């Protein structure tokens, strides 16, 4: 029996949520993954306390589970609970490869960039947090507003002497710019950089490799799943098949290769199993296998293609908007249920449509004002692009009155 | 590899992993990694990754609990068992 079949057998016998799904969807053979329905983010949010397998609810009440929370960059944060044993197994799949390919161990000093708010040490304008024991230096980049903030951060990084960095591409770009502007040099201790969040463009990868002169790899993962794939030294985004089973949802079917939405099953989380979870990313899985068995992600399109250029050189991309919205979500936790951005090329205006949690409708005005302020301060300080924020309800009314406004 | 060689190599590895705790290498085999040296989840995963690489073994999923790696004897036992199985 494969690890996937063992998991499916387990949930069909020990998890009420999935037992109900078997009945509801008329699943005849629970060990056949193709018979299971896709689990949406909304279903996960709505059922997060109903998805514990037998025996885990008491561990939850006794606070003996590990909680992983998404940053909220794509809406309301999602919580997933893990038994510690399963969490270790899940993490080991990526650590084995990091160690083998890049010589990095979990207790090597790391700088980890995050958009999440945490209890802070404030050194002037730069906000950071050192774990104890001091193997991870967390830096909250959503609180660094300008190049000066990044330049100041360099001294902290250089003094800390990390062996590796876990970093989003847009932060990496800003960091390189800060090093170049300040004529400072990266710490000699640095041996490896891992890019997370979005795939590095080839251009940025080359720029970073040339500048830092260290190994650099993309990692694709999520708080719900832990690591899904990591780039090998020969540039292949290798799926971690001891941790996840990845499928592709096209317009017509769910397959194991091709182009579509990533549907991911975690093979290790027995506490709150995620079977065929729609990760919300658009990816391509190559037909080529490594060693005739390991699958490779050819491209993670995600939101990286959602960018547009204004005045020939000013770009708004999804990463910038994600960063902005992550910060807004941190300030207004569990208020925004969903958001969409649309760009109106004629008016050079960005429209942001918000769906607010029904019980928190009174927060709309404050959230709207925060988004406008953040956009004007951080993304387009020169006002070359305006932003309009409206609720999904207002949007629906406008579309009804004047269908021309349905620019999407 | 005999038990003595496994022990020697494991002590060297653990001495590196727990270096920051300041424990004397000679005392390593008498301490509890969790209670005395404060082994946390990061250190635990480090221990597993390092022993797997050093001995070319894979620790089975069902053994991956901190409780199974609380002291030097535990670690040596797991390594010995996995090496024996691979033979």
* CATH topology grouping of chain B: Non-ribosomal Peptide Synthetase Peptidyl Carrier Protein, Chain A
Shape of chain A: globular
What is the helical fraction of chain A, as a range of percent? 25-40%
Q: Estimate nothing, just give the exact number of structural domains of chain B.
A: 1
Count of helical segments of chain A?
A: 11
If you compute it from the alpha carbons, what radius of gyration of chain B comes out, rounded to the nearest whole angstrom? 12 Å
Q: So, the CATH homologous superfamily of chain B? A: ACP-like
Question: What's the CATH topology label of the domain at 3-90 and 221-300 in chain A?
Answer: Rossmann fold
**Largest sheet composition of chain B:** none
Strands of chain A, total number: 21
Low-confidence stretches of chain B: none
Report the span from N to C terminus of chain B: 11 Å
The ordered string of helix (H) and strand (E) elements of chain B is: HHH
Oligomer: heterodimer
Could you please describe the fold and organization of this structure?
Chain A has 408 residues and is an alpha+beta fold. Among the domains of chain A are: 3-90 and 221-300, ANL, N-terminal domain (Rossmann fold); 307-405, GMP Synthetase, Chain A, domain 3. In chain A, 32% of the residues lie in helices and 29% in strands. Chain A starts with a helix and ends in a 7-residue tail after the last helix. Mean pLDDT of chain A is 83; it is low at 401-408. Chain B has one domain (3-71): Non-ribosomal Peptide Synthetase Peptidyl Carrier Protein, Chain A. Chain B is an all-alpha fold and 87 residues long. Chain B has helices at 3-17, 41-55, 72-86. Helices cover 52% and strands 0% of the residues of chain B. Chain B is built from 3 helices and no strands. In chain B, helix 1 (3-17) packs antiparallel against helix 2 (41-55) and helix 1 crosses helix 3. The relative contact order of chain B is 0.19. Chains A and B meet through helix 5 of A and helix 2 of B.
């Amino acid at each position: 029996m494969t690890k996937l079949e063992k998991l499916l057998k387990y949930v069909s016998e020990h998890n009420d949520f999935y037992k109900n799904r078997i009945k509801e969807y008329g699943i005849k053979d629970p060990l056949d993954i193709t018979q299971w329905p896709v689990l949406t983010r909304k279903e996960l949010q709505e059922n997060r306390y109903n998805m514990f397998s037998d025996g885990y609810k008491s561990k939850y009440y006794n606070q003996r589970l590990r909680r992983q929370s998404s940053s909220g960059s794509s809406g309301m944060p999602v919580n997933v609970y893990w038994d510690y044993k399963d969490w270790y197994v899940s993490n080991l799949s990526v650590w084995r490869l990091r160690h083998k390919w890049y010589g990095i161990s979990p207790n090597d000093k790391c700088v980890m960039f995050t958009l999440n708010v945490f209890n802070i040490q404030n050194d002037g304008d730069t906000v950071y947090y050192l774990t104890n024991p001091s193997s991870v230096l967390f830096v909250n980049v959503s609180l660094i507003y300008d190049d000066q903030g990044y330049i100041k951060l360099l001294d902290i990084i250089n003094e800390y002497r990390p062996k590796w960095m876990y970093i989003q591409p847009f932060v990496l770009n800003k960091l390189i710019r800060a090093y170049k502007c300040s004529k400072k040099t990266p710490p000699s201790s640095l041996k490896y950089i891992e890019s997370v969040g979005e795939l590095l463009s080839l251009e940025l990868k080359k720029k970073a490799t040339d500048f830092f002169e260290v190994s650099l790899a993309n990692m694709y993962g999520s708080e719900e799943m832990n690591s899904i794939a990591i780039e090998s030294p020969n540039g292949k985004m290798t799926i971690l098949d001891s941790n996840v089973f990845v499928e592709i949802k096209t317009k017509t079917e769910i397959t194991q290769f091709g182009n579509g939405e990533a549907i991911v099953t975690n093979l290790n989380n027995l506490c709150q199993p995620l079977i065929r979870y729609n990760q919300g990313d658009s990816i391509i899985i190559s037909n080529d296998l490594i060693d005739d068995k390991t699958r490779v992600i050819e491209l993670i399109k995600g939101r990286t293609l959602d960018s547009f250029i204004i005045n020939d050189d000013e770009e708004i991309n999804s990463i910038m908007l994600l960063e902005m919205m992550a910060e807004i979500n941190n300030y207004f936790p569990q208020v925004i249920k969903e958001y969409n951005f649309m760009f109106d090329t004629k008016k050079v205006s960005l429209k942001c449509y918000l769906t607010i949690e029904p019980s928190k409708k009174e927060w709309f005005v404050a959230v709207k004002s925060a988004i406008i302020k953040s956009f004007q301060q951080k993304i387009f300080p020169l006002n070359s692009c305006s932003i309009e924020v409206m609720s999904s309800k207002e949007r629906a009314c406008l579309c009804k009155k004047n269908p021309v406004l349905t620019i999407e | 590899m005999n038990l003595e060689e496994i022990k020697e190599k494991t002590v060297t590895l653990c001495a590196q992993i727990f270096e920051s705790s300041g424990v004397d290498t000679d005392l390593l085999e008498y301490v509890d990694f969790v209670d005395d040296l404060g082994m946390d989840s990061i250190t635990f995963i480090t221990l597993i990754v390092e022993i797997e690489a050093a001995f070319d073994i894979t620790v089975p999923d069902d053994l991956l609990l901190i409780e199974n790696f609380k002291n030097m004897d535990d670690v040596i036992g797991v390594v010995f068992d996995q090496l024996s199985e691979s033979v």
